[in-house]
Design goal:
By secondary structure, the chain is mostly helical. Helix content is 72%, strand content 0%. It is built from 13 helices and no strands. α2 packs across α13, α9 packs parallel to α11 and α10 packs antiparallel against α11 (276-292). 35% of the residues are buried. The model is unreliable at 1-18 (pLDDT under 50).
């Protein structure tokens, strides 16, 4: 069993070093992209249905599952860039950070400009001043927060790589992350026993570590990629463990958000994967896909590689595609949300994928979607 685990890890390292893509990471990237689109599409019906209705709870469940995609995007980057076997230097990460920074401000300009042009009047100096102000304050692109968050992680990656080259260091960080970032804030939010004491302590100490945010997911991706369940002699049935954790944790987080909505309506628990249940669901889903899809050469793998490369463009473009279709999609979605919502998500993803593929063939423009 030990030999099999070492062989699996060595195989992944060899593929990364040779420049080949890793199948299960591409699958996770595609699923995460679908999930992110699902977040924004499902939330469009919240003000139409009462929170106690089965339609609203259905949209909430889809939104909850889609939220996992946000965290998994961070995990994928951690798996790729924290691996000590991957030849990644400080200059490379600086270029990646610079590229995402350009994308961030470039798309902020485009989305704010789109809103100004939608008013169907000629642009004046006041409009240009408004545009600059919006861009400098980072407003106008609600989904673009992911880019500066990733820029921060990319900039500190050269420091994180040697620190988390050892398994024990990763486990130490993840244990602290679970306690300080995931468990304690939720404990206080739900006013559980001792919450007032924790809140008093947290204002002076614990909440300082909230700046970690998605760093735990970044390290978790590296940890599960470098030391998969299949490489652990004590884990005799990694596929069953992964499936079980995924189902239980995902069910818990859906129930949590559904229950919170009944008590307080739309609140902070929606669109927020910084909970223990979400963390466990992401870990379980990661392990499940990792076990089910070992690398191999086939036609469908090549197509998945292409879809994964287009996922960034889909993420950047999808609000622009959703805006003009919102009214039509909402009227259609009201018929039967359990069926119409996933169908609409796949249609929007397919449309954005096609547009991204076209834009990638245009000089200069292709840098905005890749």
């Amino acid at each position: 069993m030990r030999t099999k685990g070492v062989w699996l890890q060595g195989r992944l390292v060899k593929q990364m070093g040779s420049g080949l893509r890793i199948l299960y990471l591409d699958i996770l990237r595609v699923l995460s992209c679908i999930g992110v689109v699902g977040i924004h599409l499902s939330s469009n019906g919240w003000d139409v249905f009462p929170t106690a209705s089965w339609q609203w709870q259905t949209l909430c469940a889809y939104n909850t599952v889609g939220t996992l995609g946000v965290a998994i995007f961070f995990m994928i980057s951690g798996a790729l860039y924290l691996d000590a076997a991957r030849p990644v230097g400080a200059k490379h990460m600086l270029r990646k950070a610079l590229h995402l920074t350009v994308l961030y401000y470039g798309w902020l300009v485009l989305y704010n400009l789109k809103e100004l042009l939608a008013q169907r009047r000629s642009l004046q100096m006041a409009d240009l001043q408004y545009l600059v102000d919006q861009v400098l304050r980072g407003e106008g692109g609600f989904h673009l927060w992911f880019l500066p968050s990733m820029v921060g992680l990319y900039l500190i990656t050269p420091l994180l790589r040697p620190a988390f080259a050892k398994k024990q260091n990763c486990e130490y960080l993840l244990a602290g992350y679970i306690l300080v970032v995931l468990v304690l804030p939720q404990w206080v939010s739900f006013s559980l026993p001792g919450a007032q004491t924790l809140q008093m302590i947290g204002s002076n100490f614990f909440w300082t570590f909230q700046s970690l945010n998605y760093t735990g997911y970044f390290v978790l991706g590296h940890y599960l990629h470098s030391w998969p369940l299949a490489s652990r002699p004590r884990c005799r049935h990694p596929l069953a463990w992964s499936a079980g954790v995924t189902v239980v944790a995902m069910g818990a987080t859906v129930a949590l958000r559904g229950g919170c909505s009944l008590a307080a309506g739309c609140n902070v628990y929606l669109n927020n994967p910084l909970t223990l249940a979400d963390f466990m669901a992401c870990a379980g889903l990661w392990g499940l896909v990792q076990q089910l899809f070992p690398n191999g050469q086939s036609v469908w793998q090549t197509r998945l590689n292409l879809l994964a490369r287009l996922s960034l463009g889909v993420y950047l473009l999808h609000p622009a595609v959703l805006d003009p279709l919102n009214d039509w999609l909402l009227s259609w979605r009201m018929d039967f949300p359990p069926l119409t919502t996933p169908v609409q998500v796949l249609l929007v993803v397919a449309l954005c994928t096609a547009v991204t593929a076209v834009l990638r063939k245009i000089p200069v423009i292709r840098y905005l979607v890749s």
